[in-house]
Amino acid sequence: MTYKIALNFEDGVTRFIDCKPDETVADAAYRQSINLPIDCRDGACGACKCSCESGAFRLGDYIEDAMSEAEAAAGHVLTCQMYPEGDCVVRVPASSDVCKTRQAVFQARIAEVRVLSESTISLTLQGDALAGLAFLPGQYANLQVPGTTRHRAYSFSSMPRDKAVSFLIRNVPGGLMSGYLRETAKPGADISLAGPLGSFYLREIKRPVLMLAGGTGLAPFLAMLDKLVADGGSTHPIHLIYGVNTDTDLVEVDRLEAFARQLPGFSFALVVVSADSVQPRKGYVTQHIEPARLNDGDVDIYLCGPPPMVEAVATNLRERAIQPASFHYEKFAAST
Fold this sequence. Notes:
Number of domains: 3
CATH architecture of the largest domain: 3-Layer(aba) Sandwich
Structural class: alpha/beta
Distance between the termini: 47 Å
Helix content: 10-25%
Order of helices and strands: EEHEEHEEEEEEEEHEEHEHEHEHE
CATH class of the largest domain: Alpha Beta
């Protein structure tokens, strides 16, 4: 039996390693050619100190000069003394380059391109190499635009399944990737992706969760919900507010409805800016964050949307005098 350990480096690169129950994370990383910072291997120097963001583990012997009780209580670990008791996510305070590793590159092919609306394109990639793809729900990859040396960053909108994975692409006038997908792309065409990347991902759920999505910022939440279904759901309530400009911008609503049937405690609301919308909730996402969803601050908030939306939500929380237990966000802007 082995456990999956996600190592998140400070430059945004994530690498997954297999770790045996009787093996330290540092030894497992070294065995798989990743040199985590380490000196003594005896829990005496503190050079391998990292943070465990989720997952169960036990620690071997170490001295307080290497890690204090307060640090241990805050989730810090010494990877030379960390024995996993399940899958874990470990944040490493060093770059992937320093640790002698790099982001993985996968070769795939286009399986399907679907125009979901005037503003959104769904892209599904498939290939044998994707059998080795692993990422945390919410992370993104850099996709190389076929026929060019340029890349575009997109969040995964599904977890890997049957050697396939999908993305939501904003249809941008003059956009390099969206233009390729609209005009040139055909099933079977080769495409490469590098990753996974990013610090925006679903942490262990310990309290109510509020998800806020703007436009194609829905993508990472679809992957998160996909993972929750696979894991059997959560005992805490999860609410998603999905905002767009017009009714025609709403996509993947059928998937959200399916998640609501599959996940007890999950609910979602659609919000449309246009006054002509047939949706009952009009305006901006901030206008439809009910006080009960904020749970007096005992809530984890995840937000993915354009920069103005991120700033608006942060301002709204300040005005309400709400300090959430955690606030994770990812801003995105279209490239042309």
